[in-house]
Each structure stands twice: as structure tokens, then as C-alpha cells.
Amino acid sequence: MAATRTRYTTVAIVLHWLIAATIIFQIIVGWRMGDGPKGSPTTFALFQLHKSIGFTILLLSLARLAWRIFNRTPAPPVHQPRWEQIASKIVHVGFYVIMIGLPLTGWILVSTSRVVVPTLWWGVIPWPHLPGLPELAAGPKHVWHEIGEIGHGVLVKLIYLLLALHLGAVAKHQILDKDEVFQNMVPGAKPGLKEPRAWLVAAVVAAVVAAGYLFTPTLKTAKPITTPPPAAEAAAPAEPAAPAPTEQVAPAAAAQPEAVAAEPESALNDPVAWAVQKGASLTFSAVWSGSPIEGRFNRWTADILFSPEALDRSKLSVSVDMASAVTGDDQRDQSLPSGDFFDTAAHPKATFTASKFRKTGEGQYVADGTLDLRGVKKPLSLPFSLKIVGDTATARGVTTLDRTTFGVGQGEWASTDQIAAKVKVSFSLTAKRK
């Protein structure tokens, strides 16, 4: 019975201190998110950590509320004024509103974000978005996002007030009133400043604050490409493409020259169809807040009709499945197909076509063509090295694109402060003569 109970139940005490420590840690993480560069890898990792902590607080708080419903709390001190009892109840109700409301409003924000980033609870368990919100039209979705943002901001300010009132009340009961309130949550504690358990709690709180500032979540970077991606498929030679415009994007330095093996003069007088072999790669790299991000496209096709002795009749067509882009971070990879980046729903493929080739040195060539990416067509020059031995050709090339000219990066991602404009694209392949 509450009238005879001298403290909370063990389950209630454990949940209380777990939630308290988690909330304090979460506040510090939230401050760090606001202080860091927007869109940086560290801020992104803190944001993912913030979501995991928030959903943990939600689950713990629901468990605490359920336990509270079926287990009565200790009676207030006999001589406690009525106004203090009412104020205590208001603060406790306020804490439940905060502990459940903050994660819920954060959940609304995540579910209505323009860039839908999936949530992995503690990096392992997929956490769903709130049903119905991600599928809303732009107008209602924006309204819900505003509701979540305003609600989250108001509740954050309210928690500061409640924490100040709660800690102040605990200090009053322990130091001035010298009653049993503190021992309700710290069994065996005695009133007064000299109580060692009180100082132990203060030390633990300080340690949680320090951990919030010192802990750095693991940054997910691109996984090294240690195994070759699925082989690029080669189809029949493409129809001749229109000549590329004279204006060209400045290419990056080409790969190191490779000597061209001797070949019978008559063997390659006409363009030859080549079939790309297993192990070919199409990769890209960019800089995100000073850190390199590397990725690759797992699905792409190449139609090649080429001969060093018939450059004027050679042609090339490459089609890339933009939804196959991977960078080694599951959450980032699932955001790349969105409208803010590749917009694969409207533009599932990117294509590069070329029908003009130049020889720039021994074993060195440039393909002048057009890149169609995200519905934007721009001239592009692709330098590459080539080596032909018998019926086998190996080629490598690299060029640089300006992502902003193709609209890759909308809204907050259009800025080049965090994600650089320049993206390096490289390929490496072996092909057999058909």
C-alpha cells in the first residue's frame, strides 16, 4: 500500500535512473548536433545516434508509465504543503509528456523529411516511419513537418524548465526539509548534505554529461571495393550518336598511359564490337565535409564499337542504373535515389554517348560525347587509356563532373559547403572482341 511504502519499487527505480541518464545524454547530443557543421559526416552520425536514443527513451517511458499504472507510488511526506504536492504531480505529468512527446515529435520530423533517411535503431534494427506520413502530398507533408518541428522545439524548452524544478525540489527536500523524498528513489539514503549516495548521484550525472560531450559515434565510410561488382553487360552496338557540342567539361587527368600492343594493320581497320567482361567497375568519389566518400554503380551496360584505326567511325553508349549506387552506408545509400539527389523515380538511367574520339598520345584517347543525367544533358570529355592484346582490350579512364550543373543535390544539399561540387568518375574494364 502507498500509505506504508517507504520507496518506489525496484523496477520503477531502475527505469527512473535509466531514463534520467538517457535524457541528459540526449540533451548533450542534441547540443552537439546544433553546433556541428550541417550535413557533415559527424553531424550525420550524431543525428542517427540521436534518433536511436530518442526511440529508446520512448520505449523506456512507455514501460515506466505502464508500471506506474499498476503500482502505486509512496505517499508524500506528512508535513508537505498541499501546493507542493500539486506542483509535484504537475511536474511528474509534465515529464511523461516530455518523455513520450519528444520522441513522437522527432518521429514525425523523421517521417516527413524531404530526404527520407531510413532509421536503424542502434544501427541494427530497422525502425519504421510513422504510417502514412512519408506518402503524403508535398503540402500536407510540409504541414506535418512544421507541427513536428514546432512541437519538438517547444518540448525541448519545457524539459529544461522541468529539470530545473525537479532538481531544485530534490535539493530542497534533501537539504532544507530533510525528509524522506530522496530515499524514495535512492534506498537507504539519509537527509542532509553529507549523504554519500547524493554525492554519488551527482558524480554519475557529471559523468553522463562528460560522456555526452566526449563520445564520438562511429562514422560510416565507404566500404573498400574488395570484390568486383556485377559484370557490366554489353549489348549490340548503338546507333551513331549526334556529334557532341564543342563546349566541353574540363576532364580530370587521365590514367597513366599504357603501351598499345602490336596488332596486324588490317585487323582493326574497321570498328570492332567489344563485349565487356566480368569484373568491370564504374566508381565515383566526392568530398563530404572534408572526408572522402567513395562509391560505385553495381548495374550498368556498355555498347562499344571501337578501333584505334577507325576513330571517325567508332562509337560508345553507356547506360547506368542510378538506383544501383552504393557507398558503403546503408542509410545514405537509401537516400541517394530521392528527389534531392538522383531522383531515380523520374530519371532511372544516366547515359553517356560518344561518336567522336581523339588520340592524344601513345595508348591515350579522349571520347567526346554527351552525358544525360537527371534529365540534364551536358557535353563531356572522357579521357582513357587503352591496351589491346589479340582479342582482349583493357581500358581505364577518369573524368570530373560538376554535380550542381546536373541538379544532383537539391534544397539544403545544393550548397557546396559540405558536399563538394566536383565528383570524380572512374571506370576500369576488360573487353573481348565479339
From TrEMBL:
GO cellular component: plasma membrane
Transmembrane domains' residue ranges: 12-33, 90-110, 150-170, 198-216
An MF annotation (GO) of this entry: electron transfer activity
GO biological process: respiratory electron transport chain
Superkingdom classification of source: Bacteria
Cofactors that this protein relies on: heme b
Residue span, Lipid/polyisoprenoid-binding YceI-like domain: 273-432
Membrane topology type: Multi-pass membrane protein
Compartments reported by the entry: Cell membrane
Pfam families (UniProt xref): Ni_hydr_CYTB (PF01292), YceI (PF04264)
Alphabetical list of InterPro entries matching this protein: Cyt_b561_bac/Ni-Hgenase (IPR011577), Cytochrome_b561_oxidase (IPR052168), Di-haem_cyt_TM (IPR016174), Lipid/polyisoprenoid-bd_YceI (IPR007372), TTHA0802/YceI-like_sf (IPR036761)
Record's compositionally biased regions (Low complexity): 232-264
Region of interest (Disordered), residue spans: 226-264
UniProt keyword list: Cell membrane, Electron transport, Heme, Iron, Membrane, Metal-binding, Transmembrane, Transmembrane helix, Transport
Family of the protein in this entry: Belongs to the cytochrome b561 family.
Name under which the protein is recorded: Cytochrome B561
Organism: Caulobacter segnis (strain ATCC 21756 / DSM 7131 / JCM 7823 / NBRC 15250 / LMG 17158 / TK0059) (Mycoplana segnis)
